Amino acid sequence: MRPVTVTTHISAPCEEIFDFVGDLSRRPAFVDHYLKEYRLARANPVGRGAAARFLLDAPIFSERADLAITEYDRPLRIVEEGRIGLRGRSRLVAVYDFTVESDGSTRVDLTTHSEPQTPVDRLRQSGAQRWLRRQSQTALDRLRRIFEEPAGRELERVSLAGYDAGSAPRFGAHVPGVGPGASRGSAPSKTAPSGG
Predict the structure, then answer these.
(1) Torsion angles phi and psi, residue 81, rounded to 5
(2) For position 58, what pLDDT does the model report?
(3) What are the CA-CA distances from residue 140 to residues 53, 107, 183 (Å)?
């Protein structure tokens, strides 16, 4: 599929917008209208290596996809690369470019494209370009409204599937002999009960 580029202007500091877009756990706040079942693929949702999986919910075809941030050049550019389609055959790329305008606003450009690997994939993605342009523009318009027209409510966030931060181990403290005060490689000491 040929590259699709959409643009919006947001009256907010470039760094704030970049940080919001670069946090994949916040992404459903502006893309959940066409990226369904969105979930994180890695524990850290921010920066290079952060990844997510989702269902691209198009009217004729719905395909599973995953994306990972491969370039994180704060506050100018975020590049996400991944796979889409049956067995992840097709390459998918999304590039966010952030530019500070002379009036203090931020211009956000989103360019997406895919590289279908088989004739069937090319056929399935042939009519998707106009649909993807509309959905991407809607996503950037929703992103603009998040910054310019705050709703006063908590925005949607996702977490790692099955991850509960409240019960997660903290730096090995749950393992006997590991953690603060334990020497490396030492086994937990067992003291005999004092008898009297």
Answers:
(1) -125, 150
(2) 79
(3) 20, 10, 51
CB atoms within 10 A of CB 73: 12
* Measured torsion, CA atoms of residues 19, 21, 25, 31, in degrees rounded to the nearest 10: 160
pLDDT (tens digit per residue) in 65-87: 999 999 999 999 999 999 987 77
Domain boundaries, the chain: 4-151
The tens digit of pLDDT for each residue in 111-167 reads 998 887 778 777 777 777 888 899 999 999 999 999 998 877 788 788 776 555 555
- Of 121, 137, 145, 140, give the one whose Cα is nearest residue 61: 121
**Tens-place pLDDT, residues 87-105:** 778 899 999 999 999 998 9
Strand 35-40: give its sheet, edge to edge: 4-10, 106-115, 90-100, 77-84, 62-73, 51-57, 35-40
Multiple choice CATH, 4-151, 2.70.70.10, 3.40.50.1440, 3.30.530.20, 3.10.560.10: 3.30.530.20
Can you give the pLDDT at residue 179? 46
CB 6 within 8 A of CB 136: yes
pTM, two decimal places: 0.78
DSSP 3-state assignment of 23?
A: strand
Q: How far is residue 176 CA from its own chain's centroid?
A: 35
Q: What spatial distance separates the first Cα and last Cα of the chain, rounded to whole Å?
A: 81
